[in-house]
Every structure is written in C-alpha cells, then in structure tokens.
C-alpha cells in the first residue's frame, strides 16, 4: 500500500505526538503507513502526490484569520506551503482530509471566506449531516446527527465556490465540506477522545480559547460527553482511498 501523509502544526511535542497517535489508531495504520511531517518544525519539502494514498492535515493553534503581524515566521511559511499544496491537491482531486485547520486552508479557496464570525468554544456539540452529507461516500457512514469535540476561533463564513456543504451545528453553519470528489475539511476533530481534549485544554490555556476560570469546567464537561462516532471518519478515509504501491 502507498502510505498516507500526515501534516501537523503543533509545537508541543507531547500534544503533537498524542494527535498523531490518535490519527494513527483511528486510521488503523502502522507508523510506516502514515508518514508524519511537522510543518511548525521545518519546511514541507517536495511532495509528489502520486507517492501517497492520501493526505491528512491535523489541527493546531494557527489561524488563517490571525493578523499578519501576529503570525510567526513558522506560521507564515506553513500557510504558504499549505496554500500551494492545497491548490495542487484540488486540481488533481487527490484524497485529502483536513481536520479543523483544514477548514482554514481549504475554506479560503475559490472565493471562500474564513473569519471569526462562527467561532465555537471548546466543547462537545451535536453535528448534523446535510442531505449531501448523508449521501457522501465518506460522511454517509455516520449517523445523521452525532456528537463531536470541537473548539475554534475561526470558521467558514462563505463556502468556496462549488464546495458541497456536508455538516453543520446550530452555532456554526459549515462544519464539513467537500471540494471535487475527494477533498474534505472538517471543523470538528474526528481524532479526539475525552483524555486528548482535556490535555489540549491544558496545553492551550494561554491561547485565548477560554477564560482561565473555565478550565476545569470545560474538562468536566468533556469527560461527561458521549463522543463515539467521529473517529470512524478516519478508518473510512483509509478504506476509501488506500492504494496499492506503484
């Protein structure tokens, strides 16, 4: 099988490893079948799209809507590399699944707008599939409504031209969409379980996602939520797109 490529942007080693391990487990892959590149640590380098079964982009603290003067050199480089890669991925309709940060990367293509209008606090919320989502080869294996962990400052305010809306919440109209047949973005995190989201709540306490006095309440609510379905997206992505080696 041609491996999948995993792109991460998290600077905290323990959280970055936890994210990768969770995606690895959800996909049902070995580490040699899901090759990781940490974009916050160094350049992406050349990517031959034909080398990979597909590409998965994780989440992270970068926001496309951050003021330019507030972005670090690493963030500006990662954004430029991902913008160039996304253009190639969409043009070739290469299998791609971007979780959370994928919304920012793909959501600004083709006239799309990503801003701070529909941010949501760190929590677990019901996500509802649209009719297109229920008919979609990737999302259609999920229930019509399911609970997912999320937490984001920015979101899609206007879908890219030609994009297909797949899922929404009451407070964020665009929680998943597809471009072409094989390029996907989700606002929620399919890889997260209660332990992982609590660790992220602690790790990003100074990043403005919540007020300090909310920290323990958010963790308690996360532990009490029943989140079981979103991780199935990862296994389904592999099932749909794993390709034999050349």
UniProtKB/TrEMBL annotation:
Keywords in alphabetical order, please.
Answer: Glutamine amidotransferase
Q: Which Gene3D superfamilies match?
A: 3.40.50.880
Instruction: Keyword check for Lyase, yes or no.
Output: no
Does tRNA processing appear among the keywords? no
Give the matching Pfam families: GATase
Can you give the residue ranges of the Glutamine amidotransferase domain?
49-192
Database matches in InterPro entries: ChyE-like, Class_I_gatase-like, GATASE
Q: NCBIfam families this protein is in?
A: PRK07567.1
> In its UniProt entry, what is this protein called?
Glutamine amidotransferase
Q: Which organism is it from?
A: Nocardioides cavernae
List the taxonomic lineage.
Bacteria, Bacillati, Actinomycetota, Actinomycetes, Propionibacteriales
